[in-house]
Write a structure and sequence with these properties.
Strand order of the largest sheet: 1-2
Distance between the termini: 44 Å
Largest sheet: 2 strands, antiparallel
Number of domains: 1
Structural class: alpha+beta
Order of helices and strands: HHHEEH
Helix content: 25-40%
Strand content: 15-25%
Shape: elongated
Number of strands: 2
Number of helices: 4
Length: 95
């Protein structure tokens, strides 16, 4: 028996409008990035950086940026830091 990863095999689909008459509703495409998301992605053009606030969750969820773990030091002084980098899709959106 072979197991598959649902997140890997999932194909992004347009979402349905919910509410009265939802069965008759048209499919809508996903929205584009908002102004604050564009600003965040432009700040990542120079390279990965640590981010503590802003719409980073939406950016990662929509695959416009990704988390990267950077390890520093050796032995007991070793530590990891999470930084965020722009993906090719995010780079295309702000080009």
């Amino acid at each position: 028996m072979q197991l598959s990863d649902a997140t890997r095999d999932a194909v992004p689909q347009p979402y349905r409008i919910r509410g009265p008459g939802a069965a008759d509703a048209q499919l809508r495409p996903r929205r584009g990035p908002r102004a604050e998301e564009i600003t965040l992605m432009r700040s990542l053009v120079a390279g990965p950086r640590a981010i503590t606030s802003g719409p980073i969750g939406r950016c990662v969820k929509r695959d416009w940026c990704r988390a990267v773990v950077v390890e520093e030091g050796e032995g007991a002084g070793r530590r990891s830091t999470v930084v965020f980098a722009l993906t090719d899709m995010g780079r295309a959106l702000i080009a």
